[in-house]
Automatic annotation (TrEMBL):
<dbReference type="InterPro" id="IPR045175">
    <property type="entry name" value="M28_fam"/>
</dbReference>
<protein>
    <submittedName>
        <fullName>M28 family peptidase</fullName>
    </submittedName>
</protein>
<dbReference type="Pfam" id="PF04389">
    <property type="entry name" value="Peptidase_M28"/>
</dbReference>
<dbReference type="GO" id="GO:0006508">
    <property type="term" value="P:proteolysis"/>
</dbReference>
<dbReference type="GO" id="GO:0008235">
    <property type="term" value="F:metalloexopeptidase activity"/>
</dbReference>
<feature type="domain" description="Peptidase M28">
    <location>
        <begin position="262"/>
        <end position="470"/>
    </location>
</feature>
<dbReference type="InterPro" id="IPR007484">
    <property type="entry name" value="Peptidase_M28"/>
</dbReference>
Length: 493
């Protein structure tokens, strides 16, 4: 090689090395901008009683979303919602049981929401004899057709370990037996509490009075259509089993439309071509609102971990991108109505405010501030949930560089009883074949209780999770190639 070529080669390598060092230093400076105290301040604000649990379809959710949008604006993020705003509004259709509904067994009238729970809204007039069964699988179709089939809650056939939680036990039994009895011609299904179901009664009332929610284009979450599912307390068991007993009910449904909203913001990329592509950071704003889970106790479910932690993490990541933009653009979506069935993320996946093909990857966070300080979950890295090896590899590599969390991979397996992979906002994007992963520190005893308060969150761990998520997204946003989908990728359900 000629001397001048050696000199040019040495000069270029020196420049590239210096550029690489400067880039690394800049990235480090941006990560350092993710401040623990700022995260703490945002968390205690968003998870405060002021927002009353941020229930989807209420003014509380809208008020919290306005706060998130204002913080995004202050952080320098540009609006990326509809019509030049930070907002993408959509309608929630709420269907619930009307208080005009009546239930009578024999000569006794049952007071709705006190003595009887109607499981889901429908329109039905029933006047029929009761047939009591002890084994729904063996119930004779000819004997139950046109009758009201009564049964006591039972563990029979329930192998799911989650049945130890009374509310889940009740839900599993209703799910498993109602459809089977309806298929045999039952006019209505009447469940009677056992001891475990009785423990779920107070939890069930605020949930059932709210009813079910959906958006246009998404199926109803109801089990049956116009076949009432009714639940009475254990003390009514002898009445229900009385020979030649009758059941009379007039069940009415009613529907309302409420607004919900996604908050959408962005930081433009620096590369003229790659800036047209987006790395999407995802979380959800809503939680469960005000519910009297236990009479006389705290009734506001503030959802500090679920999911105020992710909301404030996205704000911190946005500030870091504003300080040091990447080649690709960063898109931030705070979804609404996640607790109603991932409705905000399903809506955005169907109606993105940027071209759908421009979405390079989705990094979703849900519950990222609890459990052991050195452990975490990263879902979407184990087949069949692994939809992008490229994206998973980047996330795993960034974990090794930084927080070095011990990853609990069991929750990512198709065989895990919680089915946790299917319960957060990355899922609608995965179903659109967009590379996605799910950052989480998993469930805990305070999950969906009034005790999920800001004071219980490990702010240090939350900050580490935020930095890990940022570093992963920043690497994806600067990669030469966008992550690829695993060939033949298909979820188990």
């Amino acid at each position: 090689m000629r001397k001048e070529h050696l000199f040019i080669s040495f000069f270029l390598s020196t420049i590239l090395c210096a550029g690489g060092q400067a880039y690394a230093q800049s990235k480090g400076t941006a990560i350092a901008a993710i401040q623990q105290e700022e995260i703490r301040k945002d968390l205690f604000t968003l998870a405060d009683d002021h927002f009353r649990g941020r229930e989807a379809g209420t003014l509380d959710e809208l008020k919290a979303s306005m706060w998130v949008a204002e913080q995004a604006r202050k952080a320098g993020l540009e609006p990326a919602g509809d019509d030049g705003t930070y907002f993408q509004f959509y309608s929630l259709v709420r269907e619930r049981v009307s208080d005009r509904s009546t239930v009578k067994i024999g000569n006794r009238t049952f007071d709705l929401w006190k003595d009887v729970i109607v499981w889901e809204p429908c329109f039905a007039a029933v006047d029929a004899p009761i047939v009591y069964v002890t084994n729904p699988d063996n119930a004779d179709e000819a004997a139950v057709k046109g009758k009201v089939v009564a049964l006591q809650f039972t563990e029979q056939g329930q192998s799911d370990p989650r049945k130890v939680i009374p509310w889940r036990y009740v839900s599993f039994v209703v799910r498993d037996w109602a459809q089977k009895l309806a298929n045999k011609g039952a006019k209505a299904i009447l469940f009677v509490s056992d001891d475990r179901a009785e423990q779920a009664w107070n939890r069930a009332i605020p949930d059932r009075t709210r009813g079910t929610y959906r958006i246009d284009g998404r199926p109803s979450r109801q089990f049956l259509k116009d076949i009432p599912i009714v639940w009475v307390k254990k003390e009514a068991l002898d009445l229900v089993r009385t020979p030649n007993q009758t059941f009379q009910a007039n069940i009415y449904g009613e529907a309302f439309t409420y607004p919900s909203v996604n908050v959408v913001a962005k930081v433009k990329g620096t590369d003229p071509a790659l800036a047209k592509e987006y790395v999407l950071f995802s979380g959800h704003t809503d939680h469960d609102g005000v519910r009297e889970v236990e009479p006389g106790k705290d009734s506001i479910l503030n959802g500090a971990d679920d999911n105020a932690t992710a909301c404030v993490a996205l704000l911190a990541i946005g500030r870091a991108f504003h300080q040091l933009p990447a080649k690709r653009s960063a898109l931030f979506v705070w979804h609404g109505a996640e607790e109603r069935g991932l409705l905000g993320s399903y809506y955005y996946a169907e109606h993105p405010t940027v071209p759908a093909q421009s979405l390079v990857a989705v990094l979703n966070a849900d519950m990222i501030g609890m459990n052991s300080p050195d452990s975490a979950g990263l879902l979407g890295i184990t087949p069949p949930h692994l939809n992008s090896s490229d994206l998973a590899s980047i996330a795993l590599a960034e974990n090794e560089k930084g927080p070095k969390f011990k990853l609990d991979t069991a929750w990512d397996k198709a065989t895990h009883f919680e089915g946790f992979y299917f319960r957060s906002d990355h899922l609608p994007y995965v179903r659109k074949n967009i590379p996605a992963i799910f950052f989480t520190t998993l469930t805990h005893p305070l999950y969906h209780t009034p005790a999920d308060e800001a004071a219980t969150i490990n702010i240090g761990k939350l900050t580490k999770m935020t930095k890990w998520m940022y570093a992963t997204g920043f690497s994806v946003a600067n990669a030469a190639n966008r992550p690829k989908i695993v060939e033949g990728f298909k979820l188990e359900k």
